[in-house]
From TrEMBL:
Keywords: Cell inner membrane, Cell membrane, Cell projection, Chemotaxis, Cilium, Flagellar rotation, Flagellum, Membrane, Transmembrane, Transmembrane helix. This is Flagellar protein FliL. It is a single-pass membrane protein. It comes from Nisaea acidiphila. GO terms for cellular component: bacterial-type flagellum basal body; plasma membrane. The keyword Cell inner membrane applies. Belongs to the FliL family. GO terms for biological process: bacterial-type flagellum-dependent swarming motility; chemotaxis. Controls the rotational direction of flagella during chemotaxis. Pfam families: FliL. PANTHER family: FLAGELLAR PROTEIN FLIL. It is found in: Cell inner membrane; Cell membrane.
Length: 167
């Protein structure tokens, strides 16, 4: 009798348990006892729309809306980190592409916060960090992320580096 329990009942319980697990995890195609797929098809569980540019700025040549305006910020003079005895400065000029003229008015009121964010972010770099094309992209991408925290995400379309000089 013990052999019957061991050789028949245990494998039967194992097969039933594996089948229930497969059903619960949706591993059997076309069989959905909980109705999750049907609810998802009806739109009950829609995933949030993914934003295309979260941690990286759009390309400089990206198309904009017809009403877009360019808001040029005053030049920044930023003291970079250095181990030299004399300071190293970066002269940075930025232009923000905004959705419309109303967005320009909103962003103009945020200019002190924008200037602070740019200076705090850029002053952490050394001269070697910002050399060449990669340095410009590093500044653009970092400022894109920080400016989207300050400016409404719908208002800010792009960030352009107009001039970046290190002396």
């Amino acid at each position: 009798m013990k052999k019957l329990i061991i050789f028949v009942t245990l494998p039967l319980m194992l097969i039933v348990g594996a089948g229930m697990g497969a059903v619960m995890f949706g591993l059997i195609p076309g069989f959905d006892p909980l109705g999750k797929r049907r609810a998802a098809m009806n739109g009950a569980e829609m995933a949030p729309k993914e934003e295309p540019y979260l941690n990286k700025a759009p390309p400089p040549f990206a198309e904009t809306t017809p009403n877009a305006v360019v808001f040029q910020l005053e030049e920044f003079v930023i003291n970079l980190q250095t181990e030299r005895r004399y300071p190293v400065f970066m002269l940075l000029s930025l232009a923000l592409e905004l959705k419309d003229p109303a967005a320009q008015a909103r962003v103009a009121s945020l200019e002190p916060r924008i200037r602070d964010a740019v200076i705090v972010y850029a002053s952490r770099f050394t001269q070697d960090d910002l050399n060449g094309f990669d340095g410009i992209n590093k500044i653009r991408d970092g400022l894109w992320v920080r400016l989207r925290d300050i400016i409404d995400k719908d208002d800010l379309l792009n960030v352009q580096v107009m001039k970046m000089t290190i002396k």
